[in-house]
Recover the amino acids of this structure.
């Protein structure tokens, strides 16, 4: 699995701490660039430094995934940077049943929040 994600981007929500942060480290070790989405800017900055120390690139996108407009703005920002997204990993603290749906237009999170332009490459 060494460098399986070289020159590919993994977008991770909840990237500033806990499971999301651990996934950031693991994917960065395998050559991935990371789109970092979370609310806490200090944790995002620290996660970005970890990715860069491992030789990758990281894009910080502060957002609260419980707000549809913030998720849509995050998707637009990641698209604008022309990151080639290989995978999106959505770490959500609390989900109601059926809160995450796969649609033709992308992944719908927390009801109406969508990542329409993030696709698995």
């Amino acid at each position: 699995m060494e460098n399986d994600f070289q020159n590919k981007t993994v977008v991770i929500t909840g990237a500033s701490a806990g499971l999301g942060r651990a996934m950031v480290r693991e994917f960065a070790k395998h050559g991935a660039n990371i789109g970092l989405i979370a609310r806490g800017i200090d944790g995002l900055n620290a996660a970005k430094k970890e990715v860069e120390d491992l030789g990758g690139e990281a894009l910080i996108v502060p957002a609260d995934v419980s707000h549809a407009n913030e998720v849509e703005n995050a998707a637009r920002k990641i698209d604008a940077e022309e990151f080639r997204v290989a995978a999106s990993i959505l770490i959500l603290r609390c989900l109601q049943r059926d809160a995450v749906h796969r649609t033709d237009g992308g992944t719908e999170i927390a009801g109406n929040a969508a990542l329409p332009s993030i696709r698995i490459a």
About this structure: The first strand starts at residue 9 and ends at 13. The chain has one domain: 9-115. The radius of gyration is 13 Å. Helices lie at 18-29, 41-53, 68-80.
